[in-house]
Amino acid sequence: MNLSPMRYKTYVWPHNPRTYTIEYQRVMSVRKIPFGRYALQDLGPTRRIMRGEGEFTGPGAYEEFKKLASVFYANGPGMLVHPVWQCASAYFVDLSLRQEPRKDYVAYSFTFWEDFTGHKTGLTAVTQTGSTGGLNQQTAVSATRYHTVVKGESLWSIAVDYGIPLHDLIALNPQIKNPNLIHIGEKVRVQ
Question: Which of 22, 24, 4 minimizes the C-alpha distance to 14?
Fold first, then answer.
């Protein structure tokens, strides 16, 4: 199987990292109650943590690592596009060398934390105010709207831009068989 390359912000891996892991966490609270019992409270899921390891090999391997390191130093979250996982807005929180680097070989590891800031849920109704016989009347305008995919976009980023939950956007577009794969120029229904 030939997978598309992993991307983060402006950086595209020349070949995908060797290993990937993803960690889902749920925050739980425990309260002791009398007679040796306890009560659990589910505080909900927390961030996803995405880790991996890889190598850059051949002439220019250390230069390639320096390009990745410059992306690490850029502030703020960015879009992490993984060939298998769901696309996500993420912070690049760790980049480590696993050995002393050479010009022709660099082994590294990385960590990304998923970011939920700026996430919007719900739909915004567009209203039109009209006047009928001196009375003000509001009517909802519900027209089907489409978005044309441009380079670097994912369904997740489109959902955030339009303020709708990702699962709703996927439901509006049954023609998209793989939500992790959309193409430039493709029409995505957003309303």
Answer: 4
Q: What is the pTM of this model?
A: 0.57
Q: Cβ distance 145 to 126 under 8 Å? A: no
pLDDT tens per residue across span 77-100: 998 988 877 788 899 999 999 999
The most distant pair of C-alpha atoms in the chain lies apart, rounded to whole Å, by 81
> 51 exposed, middle or buried (CB, 10 Å; 0-12, 13-18, 19+)?
middle
